[in-house]
């Protein structure tokens, strides 16, 4: 989800209107007594999330009580975003099985479509659509048979500016096939497609995209993922989409709204990685609205967007800022237990996961260093990530260079500008991630053909 995406590009004028509505009613919506929608029951809170581990490891931090009580205590979606065909089935089966064991509803966000985020801050995903369907098939085999909520590919329909007409058609077919695969494996799976948010595409335009992508075989659509539009605006937008779908012969669909960051406050979405935002309604299936199946925290509060911090990394200052002025969760929230000791193993946390190779840090050169890690591998290719770190002084720009291994070629780079000469690779910063304070970091990633190796990188400033 890119910093230039319309999903995030909001104006102060829009927000000023939205905030009054959100502040007055966003949290109250979580306390409804009617289940409404098509889902009832408690949402699963994974006890081993990034925020839960931070709480366990920082009992004496002044922010811990607020983060524990208002963020870690709540269910949020598990993101499957680090593309790894070989391990995803086991990850899904473990997560879904844990939810089923306590009689609660798991929530999964699948984020692996090729060319996701149009090469922005959250770029990456599968190398091609055939490999993507293999990944989807492995996910489907881990779903079990109980109710599970699946948010399929944020941005995949609302953000298509980087796709040609044929590429859009291929993506539509891939999403339709993915939906059929997931629901075929588990008839109780609830699959929802991307509908952007109320300040982005028109309802009629978005409805047309949903129909093309097979919403007729899905359970509905979701809105406001990683965004800040008030719940009332999203519900009205959802009703307009439902009406437009009906006009195209599609009925019986429902909406899910991401309320993780739509509780009010204004400001630029990316300027300081959202410390000017607030959490919205606590997650629940009791929406009091027959059109809306659930209010979910799809974007886990406290996880960064890729501006001031690496995308997907948990930042306690962001979580504290989002939650500090929010009321306590309603008493109807199912009781949960936040771990009091740090786990002995490091589980996968969306949207980043433990690297498959240990990071290597070369000696500091000319004011910056570059650290490499392989984040995912598959037959014939791999995904790499490089972290650039400024030295003891601020820098205005950076360049990372290395030599490709035998048989390696780079097919895509995000958060950097790529140039190659034979086997020599050069990646320079883009406009928004070049200036780093002393000790500051930036990251870029890439997809490559060939077998993964650990390169020796050189970093220079400019």
TrEMBL record:
GO terms for molecular function: hydrolase activity, hydrolyzing O-glycosyl compounds; polysaccharide binding. SMART domains: CBD_II. Residues 361-462 form the CBM2 domain. It comes from the Bacteria. Residues 338-347, 354-364 have a biased composition (Low complexity). The active site is at 155 (proton donor). InterPro entries: Beta_cellobiohydrolase, Beta_cellobiohydrolase_sf, CBD2, CBM2/CBM3_carb-bd_dom_sf, CBM2_carb-bd_dom_sf, Glyco_hydro_6_CS, TAT_signal. Its EC number is 3.2.1.-. Pfam families: CBM_2, Glyco_hydro_6. GO terms for biological process: cellulose catabolic process. This is Glucanase. It comes from Paractinoplanes toevensis.
């Amino acid at each position: 989800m890119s910093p230039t995406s319309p999903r995030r590009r909001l104006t102060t004028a829009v927000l000023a209107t939205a905030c009054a509505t959100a502040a007055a009613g966003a949290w109250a919506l979580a306390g409804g007594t009617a289940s409404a929608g098509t889902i009832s029951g408690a949402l699963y809170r994974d006890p081993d999330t990034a925020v839960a581990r931070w709480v366990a490891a920082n009992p004496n931090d002044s922010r811990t009580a607020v983060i524990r009580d208002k963020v870690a205590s709540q269910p949020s979606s598990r993101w499957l975003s680090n593309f790894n065909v070989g391990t995803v089935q086991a990850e899904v089966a473990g997560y879904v099985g844990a939810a089923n064991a306590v009689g609660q509803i798991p929530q999964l966000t699948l984020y692996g479509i090729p060319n996701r985020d149009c090469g922005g801050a959250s770029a990456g995903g599968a190398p091609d659509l055939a490999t993507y369907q293999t990944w989807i098939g492995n996910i489907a085999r881990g779903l079990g048979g109980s109710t599970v909520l699946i948010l399929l590919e944020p941005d995949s329909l609302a953000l298509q500016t980087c796709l040609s007409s044929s590429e859009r058609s291929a993506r539509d077919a891939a999403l339709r096939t993915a939906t059929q695969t997931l629901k075929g494996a588990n008839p109780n799976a609830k699959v929802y497609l991307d509908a952007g948010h109320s300040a982005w595409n028109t309802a009629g335009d978005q409805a047309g995209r949903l129909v093309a992508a097979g919403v007729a075989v899905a359970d509905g659509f979701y809105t406001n993922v990683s965004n800040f539009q008030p719940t009332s605006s999203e519900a009205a937008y959802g009703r307009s989409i439902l009406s437009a779908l009906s006009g195209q012969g599609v009925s019986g669909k429902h909406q899910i709204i991401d309320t993780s960051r739509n509780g009010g406050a204004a400001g630029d979405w990316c300027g300081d990685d959202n410390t000017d935002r607030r959490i919205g309604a606590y997650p629940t299936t009791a929406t009091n609205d027959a059109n809306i199946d659930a209010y979910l925290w799809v974007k886990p509060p406290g996880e960064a967007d890729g501006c001031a911090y690496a995308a997907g990394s948990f930042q306690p200052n962001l979580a504290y800022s989002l939650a500090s002025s929010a009321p306590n969760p309603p008493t109807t929230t199912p009781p949960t237990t936040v771990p009091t000791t740090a786990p002995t193993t490091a589980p996968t946390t969306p949207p980043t996961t433990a690297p498959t190779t240990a990071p290597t840090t070369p000696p500091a050169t000319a004011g910056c260093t570059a650290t490499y890690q392989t984040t995912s591998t598959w037959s014939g290719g791999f995904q790499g990530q490089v972290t650039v770190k400024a030295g003891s002084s601020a820098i205005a720009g950076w360049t990372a260079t290395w030599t490709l291994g035998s048989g390696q070629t780079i097919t895509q780079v995000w958060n950097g500008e790529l140039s190659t000469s034979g086997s020599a690779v050069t990646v320079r910063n883009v406009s928004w991630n070049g200036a780093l304070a002393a000790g500051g970091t930036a990251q870029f990633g890439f997809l490559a053909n060939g077998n993964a190796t650990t390169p020796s990188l050189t970093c220079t400033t400019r």
